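Worked example 2:
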Amino acid sequence: MKRLVCVFIILGLLIPIGSQAETKKDELDILYNIMEGLDGKCLEVDLVFNGIIFDTFIDGEELKLIGEEVRTKLGIVGKEVDPYIEEEVLEEHYTKEVIFQEDFNQITYIGQDEDLNKIVIILTSYEYDEVKSGETYLYINIMKNSDLIKNNDIIEAVMSIYESFNVAIDKTYCLLGEISNDMSYNNMVKEINKIFARMDVEVVDEFTDGSMISFTAYTPLIEEYIEIGKDRINLNIAIRSSQIDDKTHIWIATPVITVGY
């Protein structure tokens, strides 16, 4: 329980706190353009959504109703099975884990839709002991194959769910892919700098350790950003060469990369 509460606190720090008035482009389009500019191949798209849907603690029965509604709207298929079942389940299924306590309720769904998109739904409601107030969060994680830019119905479904609660949401989008091993480190940096120049990117931090290079940056082309200290951030790129599979992996995210690399 403590671990999941910490996750929501961290995600809360990533809630966009600013925007710009000038014309913007779709965040995913920008990420895909960067991937294509580096001759990369997108293998997976990781989308994270999080928002406070109620500023109160709600009981387990109400949480169940909301959970089933969200699961249905996202099209999770199959039958419900015990997440701790030991034998292999061959037919379509999803898991549902329920934790109901005096001041903490949580329901977690893990499954997939008919397009084989992996979906995680976490509904968490907790009460503060001191003042008897609370909050209820809805976290949705979609792990989709690379055809997302051609078929983004699932994003529209997620957005409509949060709109039904009339709440602000935190979004994190990340592309995971591979780029050619033929490109040298210096040429890779040159190509990234060319892309950054076209996007009017301001690099906030750059890191390299020989096998990896990463950039934390800001571009006015993306509307939302987070602030860390005095810096605005809404673009994060990491490239790592792997001796295990002899491939060069790339992560491109807004506002920051939240998956392991």
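DSSP finds five helices and 13 strands in the chain. Confidence is low (pLDDT under 50) at residues 1-24.
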